[in-house]
Amino acid sequence: MLKSFIFLLSIPTFAFIPNSFKMNYTQEFKSQVSQQNRSGTGVFEYKYPSNLKIDQEKPEKLVYVSNSKTTWIYRAPLFDDEPAEVTVHKGQAASLSSFFDILKDGLKTNGNYSVAIKGSEALLTFNKSASKSTGIKTATLKFNKADRLIFDELNIIDISYTDGRLVELKLSNIATKVTFPAKHFVFEIPKGAKVLKQ
User: Fold this and answer.
1) Does domain 16-197 have CATH number 3.30.200.20?
2) 181 in Cβ contact with 164 (< 8 Å)
3) pTM listed for this prediction
4) What is the pLDDT of residue 38?
């Protein structure tokens, strides 16, 4: 009986990130070029491990698809007479997919980050190795309720990147245990697109 109770208590800690999810987001950030506040909207789709698709609608159309082998970044043309542009990276660059992978460690201090919980917020401070793999220095997870620090109640992520960028992600319409098609995290380059390999 006691073992079962301990196991139940451990579930929110060690199963914080579901194996797959889909959510809408609004991103608030300051442009490094103009220093003006900007925002973007779109959809996150994730499957553990290391599979991420970001379909951004605003301010401009952008599709980011990544798996453990390849990352594609698609930018729609600004004008009708211009080709679309696709940047292809071999391997997995530091990204939100690495961030979500590491969050499998839960809301408890571990080998990747320390955790400080205050009310309905959890501050994650990444160590040197985790910062290198994610590009993130700290992340503050904000929940709807202080007594329910679970993924389904997550509504804001404030991210401080190692390059100085500050980004606020407002989340909504979270769906978990999503089943994706076999090649959902493989981007098909459109005909006529300009391809840049890095």
Assistant:
1) no
2) no
3) 0.87
4) 87
